[in-house]
Amino acid sequence: MTRKRFDEMGCCVASALNEVGDWWSLLIVKQAMLGTRRYVDFQNSLGIAKNILCNRLSRLVENGVMVRVDVGEHGKRYEYRLTDKGRDLFTVVTALRQWSERWNGAQDSMKLVDRQTGEPLAPVTVQNQQGQPLTVRDVRFVDENGKPFEEAG
Amino acid sequence: MTRKRFDEMGCCVASALNEVGDWWSLLIVKQAMLGTRRYVDFQNSLGIAKNILCNRLSRLVENGVMVRVDVGEHGKRYEYRLTDKGRDLFTVVTALRQWSERWNGAQDSMKLVDRQTGEPLAPVTVQNQQGQPLTVRDVRFVDENGKPFEEAG
DNA sequence: CCACAATGGTTGCAAAACGAAACCAAATAA
DNA sequence: TTATTTGGTTTCGTTTTGCAACCATTGTGG
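The joint structure predicted for all components is written out below.
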């Protein structure tokens, strides 16, 4: 009775969640985006149990989200760094952050600003090719043949 | 030894994950965005255990992501619908979907298109006020006072 | 060089969450 | 009226989580 596998549900969202959909993984990724690289620093900043951290880091490395780099003079000192795939989760993490700020109020001491201008970021939105923002009501789900998706039931 | 609580970590991302950060919640939200509303349809389309589904729907309702609407003629028939807060997760779900398509290949039979034009959506990106896309390297984390955040360690 | 702390784990245990299946009552359809 | 659908709850065995203890290297201060 293992946890349900999401990677074979034929759904992109499911297979994304299969990689980073647990309680800790995205928090680890977010922390890495803040600059954290060392095992101990992840542990202290997140307050995560060591065995869970170990397990999550391994899974993130397995899935190509992070890499373990040997930085010891004679081995046995490591850094965990985001890969391109991991850094590409920036959109997801930022969207989550803004969603939480918008609906739960900003209980975060940290703010994200444009490095160049120091201005706050624009809200992350889904857009069409012309850059117009789209809500879920402005899109359609179609199958390979372009036919509109019909909900069973 | 309860599951670690994320809502008091003083981090927006953490408190977002506290609401929708488990394996199933975002999948339920995604399914609701496809049009699913009924308990049984969620169960069949996701293949989730009934007790877990029940628990997750309750939590989503508690957190204001969905509402339970009575649609029975004499009660006892319900629909679960997204609230504005729930619909606002569209960005997160779409970013996850695109991330997975980009890095794991598209194993999804479903495509998202602009309802008006039928064109595929633009990639979700983080942007500055001028609409320029930003990567994680183009942003800075600052505290309330505007001082740059320094990583401990 | 030696003692001591830090790093990056692993192991064992108890509590909690999960998954599957059985069961159940109300509402609806045949 | 009987059967089926809906929306659950209960039970039970397995897995995951959190905590603390332990351990082998690796660095550091003297």
